[in-house]
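In the lab's daily routine, each protein ends up as an entry in a very long ledger. A line of letters takes care of the sequence, but it says nothing directly about the fold. The fold becomes a row of whole numbers, each drawn from a learned catalogue of backbone shapes. The protein below has been through that process, and both of its lines are reproduced in full:
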Amino acid sequence: MTRVAYNQFRGWALPTDENGADNGYLVEYEPDGKPNVPGRAGYVSWSPKAVFDDAYRRTDAMTFGLAVEALKRGHRVTRAGWNGKGMFVYLVPANSYPAQTGAAKAFFGDGGMVPYNAYLALKGSDDTVSTWAPSGSDALAEDWLIVE
């Protein structure tokens, strides 16, 4: 969308010091109950193409850092380069579970709760779940995907 098209969309006159032919994007953020344009659910703005392209990335080829952000928001992620079918990583939040082993009962007491920190879990191709830490190549890969 050009700058002039956005201004027309908003019902505004193009300021004289702006180039109406500038290319950019109409951006609508997730609905938060505070729409700023009648008939739209979310906050609407316009971003110049160069600014947008520098600030946003497609989510079909994420870095591990972006994958971690997706995990923190409750998404499951996988790598396009993984060979195993149906494998994905998810974030298990900190919590606790009842002591079940002799070692846990000896330390936390019979019927005690064992606290654990948040961790990453991997659902393997064999449908089992294990704790998971990324390898160096996983951490440097740019083929991370959100599992829908």
Observations:
- The radius of gyration is 23 Å.
- The helical segments are 3-10, 49-55, 64-72, 102-108, 136-140.
